Amino acid sequence: MNKSIKIIFSAILIAVISIGFLYVKILAQESTTTTDIQTQYKNIKDEIERLKKQLNSLQNQEKTLGNQIAQFNSQIEVTTLQILEMRQEVAELEIDIDLLQSQIDGLEITLEKISSVLVARTVETYQRGEINPLKLLVVSNGFDEFLTQYAYISYMQDYDKKVLLQIQSNQNNISDKKKELVDKKTLVEKKKKQLESLKSTLDGQKKAKETLLTVTRNDETRYKKLLEAAQSKEEALSQLIFRDGKVSYKMAIYGLTKSGSVVKGARIGTMGNSGAPRCTTAAHLHMEVIENGILTSDQIAGDLINPYSHLKSRELSFFQDNNSIGSQTFGAGSWDWPLSNPIITQGFGKTIWSSRYLSGFHTGIDIVDYNDRAVKAPESGTLYYAKVACGNAINIAIIDYGGGTLSDFLHLE
User: To 5 degrees, how large is the angle CA 375–CA 391–CA 364?
Assistant: First the structure.
């Protein structure tokens, strides 16, 4: 009997020591590595905030070539720091994954040891057979031995119950830790994809800066001419008011004529360069979509929305900051794209080039098709043609889809 007690308590002692050592090691590793990474992470975030404030200050200053280059430099530095920040997040998640794996291993070791103790106890109980107090009293050598053996049996029965509860608890903990481990690994993969996207953004920003320097040849006079062309186009085309999360829009037009009903897919014009040289620099199609729209003989007005919300989802090539070519899915609606093989040269809203405009906002999307210049109706509606005064007049097509939804297409031949 005494030998069995010693074996059981030895097994319990070994299990407790092993678990304690493992968790002390884990906690020591966590306190060292996590603290270091969190400190670096905070420093990077503070630096990003400083640079963003500097960038906002630059964007509010007079637009000069030096100012534009300074903005590029700040954007490049912010993106570089965001890459470092993302790398820190990935590193911290990978440490969490290692810690979780260690905890799972520790729990499984503990579960194995506790299970071994329970098995040993079960075997011993089986070999001893059922013992009731009366039978135990008969076989004992005196009342003292009976009390000792009875107390031992009662203690071990309680202990067996605790072991069973501990096994159940460990099984639940292992299950929870494994789920958390899977979630962390999924998040790491997501962060790594975001990291690759930031790297592409950084490459685009660097190339955009190089492009600006190449186009202007670091010449302030040449830059001012480019800036004046962009601002003249916006001044002639539209007035924007930013309010309540909406962009209220007005564009002066003249020579409005009604063509009549048009069906989806019908040709409505040809991609061109009307408005050059003051209000465009190359053949392309500028498409805008307006809700709560009003069309009169002298203006088109309403709330601008991103055309992607109406256009069909497609995998398309796009200019990354008007230089390198990338590929991405665009669109979330039911309309056809107005060009057969569109390449996106500038998106909607705040873009790398929209700082040239007085409002800092691009009112639509710019697309080109190098194989087919035919512009087609994305959806059925009523077709109009008009002009916009901007140096040489810009030719535009307007489609009224009903319900206040309009779209216009600029720079047609």
Answer: 40
| Residues whose CB is less than 8 angstroms from the CB of residue 252 and which lie 6 or more positions away in sequence, other chains included | 236, 298, 299, 388, 389
Residue 228 belongs to some domain of the structure? no
pLDDT in tens, 232-266: 555 555 567 777 778 888 888 899 999 999 999 99
Domain that holds residue 359: 238-412
Rounded Cα distance, 304 and 306, in Å: 7
Identify the H or E element spanning 237: helix 220-237
| pLDDT tens-digit series, residues 398-411 | 999 999 999 999 99
Mean pLDDT of the chain: 77
Rounded to two decimals, the pTM is 0.48
User: What contacts 164, CB < 8 A, 6 or more positions away?
Assistant: 118
For residues 98 and 194, membership in a common domain is answered with yes
Task: Tell me the one-letter amino acid at 403.
Answer: G
| Total count of domains within the chain | 2
